[in-house]
Amino acid sequence: MAVFDRLPTGLLRAAFRAPIWLYRAHLGWLLGRRFVYLAHRGRRSGRRRETVVEVVGLDRHEVFVVSGYGERADWYRNLRAAPPVEIRLGARRYPEPGQRFLTPVQTVELLADYRRRHPRTWRRLASAFGLPADSSDRELDEAGRRLRAVAFALEPTS
What we know:
Strand content: 25-35%
CATH topology of the domain at 10-103 and 148-153: Pnp Oxidase, Chain A
Shape: globular
Strand order of the largest sheet: 5-4-1-2-3-7-6
């Protein structure tokens, strides 16, 4: 069983939420460009919700993130219901960024690129999420069907 087969509770949930306080204190730059703060609306309550997720890919126009919990992650489900309120990357704030949901094929390409760029981090994350550390392309294809990825625009969309 992988560490993250179930959604986090208790101390693990508190540890995952700790970076939010850095962004609230305008210290998000301490996390560099490896993490992104995401503010979104609750799909039922409509209330503002916040999370910080790891950046899996980044280019001049978009930042890419993956839901390790697939469609079970609340932030992912909320984004399916309504667009994000804002994202913050380092010290930069992007209000109401555009978003797009990646296809399973695009998700596999994103994961393969991440594995190539960050092999040590990949091994740790892969084992936590129930993926073999030295994933074959076939195993990455299976992960692409299970995991979900989102790209956020770093420029205004028209």
